[in-house]
Amino acid sequence: MRARFTIARLMIAVVAVAVGLSVYRAFWFWGFVALTPFGIAALDSPPARNRSVRGWVLVVGVLGTLVMPFLVAIAINHDLWGYYISRPPVDRRIIEARSIESITYVETAAGADGGLTFFGTPVRYPEVMGEQVLRDLKAREALPPNPPIMPADRLGRLHRVLDESGQLEVGEPGYHGAKRLSGVAIEAKDREGRPIVFVGVRGREVSNDHYPYYEFLFATDSPTGRWKWLSFQRFYYDIAGIEGVEWPVFFLILAWMGLIPTLWLQGLVARLGRRWSPQSNAPPGRASG
Asked: Residues 6 or more apart from 198 whose CB is under 8 A from it?
């Protein structure tokens, strides 16, 4: 019985590692390292005669080295970068638009009235193809070769709409100019032929090495003349900071940090199980039979 139980635990660990390797794929080595604490918890869990106790010991191992590290890792990821697992895709309504009317590279500049506005220039594709929306349009072969730019009066209105949306970061103390934006603005007609405007812009530094990125989608055919807000997304990225450090890294660290407490809790559960198990208080002949 003892040998069969050990083999079963070994099989569980092997299956967990195999699943981890398939999930991490290109990062298979780090996936293996991140899942090793679970393998240790599964193999080194204290022995228990009662099947229910063995189950609870394994549950503690799963919670301590897989579930809790994963949940905490994606929570940290969301707090840092604005998304849990991966950056959400661009709104499909702009990617699947019937036609692209204009594409403009925009930058915040001083307006004639002393306020801020957008200054627009034609896009230079090799220089702006870092924008996900343009890559998606290109993949659909919907990117016009020489699109016109948005008129200056609409650019000024667009900047006011973004500024009044309440979604732009103001920055921590000492980080001025966080609302100065740069990116692309796209005028299009959706699949029903209604005019829409997509804006994908970056803000300036809001904290040390930390920058925001915004995506807005508006409908511009409202009878009241107001632009209707269709969707919004905000992400963050670092420059010369911890760029590229996302939830898999946090998971790896947290899984190893949680290993020792998990092994201690497994031992506690096993001891309590032996104390409360009816088999532990049964006569020797009955327990063995």
From this structure: 90, 91, 94, 133, 185, 186, 188, 215, 216, 217, 218
Q: Which two tokens stand for residue 288?
A: 């063995």
pLDDT of residue 91: 94
Find the helix or strand (DSSP H, E) in which 197 lies.
strand 195-202
pLDDT per residue as tens digits for the range 258-279: 888 888 888 887 777 777 665 5
Helical H segments across the chain, by residue range:
2-24, 28-43, 51-62, 68-81, 92-95, 125-128, 132-139, 152-163, 247-257, 259-276, 284-288
Spatial distance between the Cα atoms of 125 and 147, rounded to a whole number of angstroms: 11
Backbone φ, ψ for residue 198 (5° rounding): -110, 140
Question: The pTM is what?
Answer: 0.76
Contacts of 215 (CB under 8 A, 6+ apart): 90, 91, 133, 198, 199, 200, 231, 232, 233, 234
Specify the DSSP class assigned to residue 111.
-
Domain boundaries, the chain: 2-84+246-288, 92-221
For residue 205, the tally of other CB atoms under 10 A from its CB is 20
Largest Cα–Cα distance of the chain, in whole Å? 96
Of 258, 252, 266, the closest CA to residue 58 belongs to 266
